[in-house]
């Protein structure tokens, strides 16, 4: 049986990293609802387990040194979030691992061909594919690379 919470974790961390990469080097607010959709609090004002897990993924990224942030905005977001220098390097790293069939067009200049195989491009492709297996493989590889730094 698949560990669905881990699949959600990989998706949340991939989306968070992609979002922060797109805004780099600006510091931004990273809202849980922007990644997983609207959440309705219960009668006690508590968020769903899914919402809490997504926020937990943001905090884990920070604790492991992938991102930095200034503070949380209640339990809705992290404020002034930015990629760490380690993560900027990791996302730009050329990966020789093939996670999906590559376009072997010989018309692409070498710079564009290399750009297609950076970790950030693998993350983009995995999210677009909507394949849990592909996303899990890409994110495991990314975190393994980060652990080696």
Quick synopsis:
This protein is of the alpha+beta class. It has helices at 4-23, 32-36, 49-63, 85-92, 110-115, 119-129, 132-148; strands spanning 28-31, 67-68, 71-73, 77-83.
Protein architecture, described:
The chain is an alpha+beta fold and 149 residues long. The chain has 7 helices and 4 strands; from the N terminus they run H-E-H-H-E-E-E-H-H-H-H. The chain has helices spanning 4-23, 32-36, 49-63, 85-92, 110-115, 119-129, 132-148, and strands at 28-31, 67-68, 71-73, 77-83. Strands 1, 2, 3 and 4 form a 4-stranded antiparallel sheet that branches. A hairpin with a 3-residue loop joins strand 3 (71-73) and strand 4 (77-83). Residues 102-109 have low confidence and may be disordered.
Task: Report low-confidence residues grouped into runs of 5 or more.
Answer: 102-109
Gross morphology is globular
Number of domains: 1
Rounded to the nearest angstrom, the radius of gyration is 16 Å
Order of helices and strands: HEHHEEEHHHH
| Structural class by secondary-structure content | alpha+beta
Specify the number of helices. Answer: 7
How many extended strands? 4
Distance between the termini: 32 Å
Helicity level, as a percent range?
A: 55-70%
Question: Beta-strand level of the residues, as a percent range?
Answer: 5-15%
**How would you sum up the major sheet?**
4 strands, antiparallel
Mean residue pLDDT: 86
Features of the shown structure:
11% strand, 7 helices, 149 residues, alpha+beta
